[in-house]
Amino acid sequence: MALKGVSIWGCSQAPPPQLGVVNSHHSTLQIGNLRYDLEKCRKWECCCLGILAERAITPVEDEKPSVPFVESSGDADGVHQNDSDGFHKDINLLPKPLTAIDVSSSPRDGSKVRVAYQGLSGAYSEDAALKAYPKCETVPCDDFEAAFKAVELWLVDKAVLPIENSVGGSIHRNYDLLLRHRLHIVGEVQLRVNHCLLGLPGVRKEEVKSVVSHPQALAQCEKMLSDLGVVKISAHDTAAAAQTVASNCVRDTGAIASSRAAKIYGLDILAERIQDDDENITRFLVLAREPIIPGTDRPHKTSVVFSLEEGPGVLFKALAVFAMRDINLSKIESRPLKQRPLRVVDDSNEGSPKYFDYLFYIDFEASMADPRAQYALGHLQEFARFLRVLGCYPMDTVS
User: Which positions are catalytic?
Assistant: First the structure.
């Protein structure tokens, strides 16, 4: 459809007046029916430029160079300032623009990063945070949601939270919180779990009559606890269990926690690697307010969540968009859709509930910078009722 030209001069049929007609007797400029007093315009221009120049050279206190004051008297050393234009002559004092090298060479050890985690000092989540950022400042939180909020409220820079364990399975609470909060996954940490039996200094393993720890840790050490015949006591987390034993000073009570927790709370390690499964690995997610730029220089993983309309083979079609592009799926998790948990027989809401509506969380091994991932998500969006990318981040390996 062609666009018709519209005259900026209005609807008059008369030819447009001549532009730039100057009346030399009255120092006026006429444009159309408008008449401008050139002398007043010059005065206004000089006034405004003077104000702008004054603002331009008015220093902000934080921006003052940290150099001794030198009077502008001829060839004096230091800062030379031109009184006529207000600019520094010594350009070496001006800030230098950052380059790509400057950005990439920023410290990656976390020395300037505050990282939130759930639990107390000595928790496995803190170990994961220190693996991701070795010199970071760790910030303990009471629960998972507090860690999410700490990032959102700019109290910390990152949060490191568990998402699944090779023995205990997925942490469903954190899957739900990922959808409720607008944070982005910017990394993952795979941490090998080494459960230790801790006790007060001088206590032998045979003296322990009860053991306190997180319910999952107790379940993962079932064989050793059964052999000892001890009473199992649940705690909020493993670090809290170690703190309880240290503070109560009860000799016949032990705790299951990490070796780092033993050092923090002054406990002895009575036994190491007491878990039933030696390959006990917990995967953590690193969350931030802003996503990172995906790359292709190393293996990346992308996490998405989506829901589907009901129909035969719809889930198969959703997964096929990745298979047909040779993209490996490393994780799929389903959670009931809370806004619409049950569907009924017909649209009139009559009859008995038949099945759940689900959200599907998927991790696939491809970067969003890879065209295959972009085409796959574009294909998925054709029949997904809801789709959100939770993050694209470098893959981690167990060390």
Answer: 282, 284
